[in-house]
Design goal:
Porin, 14 helices, 12-stranded antiparallel beta barrel, 2 domains
Length: 582
């Protein structure tokens, strides 16, 4: 009798374990999304999925735990990719949210040259890859639909977000580079011969032979039986209104315009692109490591050509941000995180032009005197397929009365190498003041990069004794981007004279608007500190106007003299400029 009871208990325990292993938390979320009966339900599930941590694989793990000991199966991601594609077909309005979520993930650990790997993370090894042997309940349709194992772009789904970047060639190339090289997402033009393309993506990344993994332990049900929602859905999704023909009653007429047959499309073997409007509003998915299950709809940014004001996005306190950064600062996390820093958010912030919200990262070193403000005004980035020429026309007015107009021209022969020349003519209070200058250098506007500038000649000709090469670095830190802050540091070493170091910091409270300040220290027998500042509206896209105030000093500081101050009028210059690029 006792033996039979023990045997029954063991069998019950085993049955319970098998039942628990039928679906992981990630697969359960995919099941919930697969069986949604309204656009409202799908919206909340996608918002939750976008907020899930992608550590340490670059993708959500099976248990949605963000722990060091976890695993992820390629078969689960295959199912999830198919479900997300089906969601676009069922609810076209959610296309943008789905694409942003998928394009935020990093597939480098799982997908390479058509091979799929199951992933395991332990405390001893950051990521262990083993060959995925399946079985694949979705028949690898998810990976095929998105182009990971199907190089024919005519038979796969290409995200519409690519089209929204077409007016901005430079940003498009940068976007492709980040997705294909850093996140191993398929190239959008794989039907062409991409062997000579600069960004070829995961298909050019070698991988050693993988050890065979274990059998896929979970089950997937493509059918959606009528049953009560899962525990996750019960706790996070409120009860829906009565459903009519698979669609919530209040939204029935609206959704019916986009969905001909609202039933779940479970067997999609040859996906057909839906006629969907091009996405204009692009917002990166936010991540909340402390609360993975906050069903919050994404906040859309205005159109790139819109005059609407930016909707402020609430951010946590700086102290909390720094604490979160420190919490995830383990060596193994850093190694993986370097592969997929929040690149999507950075791209969508910069894709219009590299100057927007990050003006200071491409501004040259603040000039040492107000006479050269116009000659140092930045010019737009030339288009990638253009002539490499850009420039501006400007008018400067010192608050003490002097007036000047001039022009700058920049030629970009290749990469970030530039040759800059400018001329100016002063006409008030007395005309006849003509100046010119030329310089050459390397200027990569991306944060985390260096810039170098070498003056060539000016009004004094090839005055080698006055040449002062400068080297600058643009800081790259996630917590700076969160608060629209940017900074740079530079060092200038004249061939004749004392060297100097400087740093410049800028805050952009709203798009195109900025407030900046700089601090400079010169060395030598008469070394001293000085500071500069400026503010205004700077839109350095081609064929746009900018209006700025610059006080480049010198404004002495830290010398104990009573006459130190802001010198708003004495050293202030107001500049109006208009940029162009071809």
């Amino acid at each position: 009798m006792l033996v039979s009871r023990l045997l029954g208990s063991v069998l019950l325990f085993c049955a319970f374990g098998v039942a628990q292993a039928e679906q992981s938390s990630l697969l359960e979320m995919a099941q919930d999304l697969h069986c949604t009966q309204s656009e409202q339900q799908a919206t909340k599930l996608i918002a939750r999925l976008a907020k899930e941590s992608i550590m340490p694989f670059g993708l959500p793990d099976e248990n949605l735990s963000d722990q060091s000991n976890t695993e992820l199966y390629a078969a689960t991601i295959d199912i999830l990719l198919q479900v997300l594609y089906d969601t676009i077909q069922r609810y076209p309005k959610l296309q943008e949210s789905v694409e942003k979520t998928v394009l935020h993930w990093n597939f480098c650990e799982m997908v390479n040259e058509g091979d799929l790997a199951d992933l395991t993370a332990t405390q001893k090894a950051a990521v262990i890859q083993k060959k995925a042997i399946g079985p694949f309940p979705a028949k690898q349709r998810g990976f095929s639909i998105w182009g990971f194992i199907n190089r024919d772009a005519g038979k796969r789904y290409v995200p519409e977000i690519y089209k929204s970047l077409s007016p901005f060639p430079n940003a498009y190339q940068d976007f492709i580079y980040r997705l294909t090289q850093k996140q191993c997402f398929p190239h959008p033009e794989l039907e062409q011969d991409i062997s000579h393309q600069p960004y070829s993506g995961a298909y050019r990344m070698p991988r050693t032979k993988l050890v065979v993994g274990k059998k896929y332990p979970y089950t997937w049900d493509e059918q959606c039986p009528e049953k009560s929602p899962s525990k996750i859905e019960q706790s996070k999704i409120p009860k829906e209104q009565p459903v009519v023909n698979g669609i919530s009653t209040p939204a029935n007429k609206l959704v019916a315009k986009f969905v001909a047959k609202p039933a779940v499309q479970s067997n999609v073997k040859h996906p057909v692109k839906a006629e969907i409007a091009v996405i204009k509003n692009v917002t990166p998915p936010a991540h909340d490591r402390q609360n993975h299950f906050v069903p919050e709809a994404s906040i859309a940014l205005p159109d790139i050509n819109s005059s609407q004001k930016l909707t402020p996005i609430p951010t946590p306190p700086l102290k909390q941000k720094l604490a979160l950064k420190a919490k995830s600062a383990e060596p193994k996390v850093i190694d993986i995180q370097d592969k997929y820093k929040d690149t999507l958010a950075l791209v969508f912030k910069e894709y219009k032009q590299p100057t927007e919200k990050d003006v200071s990262v491409i501004l040259p070193t603040i000039p040492s005197d107000s006479a050269n403000v116009g000659l140092n005004l930045p010019v737009p980035q030339p288009p990638a397929d253009g002539l490499g020429l850009a420039g501006n026309l400007y008018h400067t007015a010192k608050l003490t009365g002097e007036m000047t107009f001039g022009a700058n021209v920049s030629w970009k022969p290749f990469s970030y190498i530039k040759i800059n020349c400018g001329v100016s003519y002063g006409y008030l209070p007395a005309s006849g003041s003509f100046k010119y200058a030329c310089s050459a250098g390397y200027d990569d506007w991306h944060p985390g990069s260096f810039a170098m500038q070498l003056p060539l000649f000016d009004n004094n000709g090839l005055a080698f004794k006055k040449i002062a090469p400068s080297l600058g670095y643009k800081f790259d830190a996630d917590f700076l981007k969160e608060y629209n802050l940017s900074g740079s540091a530079s060092v200038s070493v004249p061939l004749s004279g004392s060297p100097s170091v400087a740093t410049s910091w800028q805050w952009s409270p709203a798009e195109h608007w900025f407030i900046r300040a700089g601090l400079q220290r010169s060395f030598g027998s008469q070394g001293s500190w000085s500071w500069s500042y400026g503010f205004g509206y700077s839109d350095f896209r081609p064929f746009k106007l900018s209006l700025t105030y610059d006080n480049v000093g010198p404004n002495p500081i830290f010398d104990g003299k009573p006459d130190d101050g802001v010198n708003f009028k004495e050293n202030g210059v107001v500049s109006l400029s208009w940029g162009w690029a071809f």
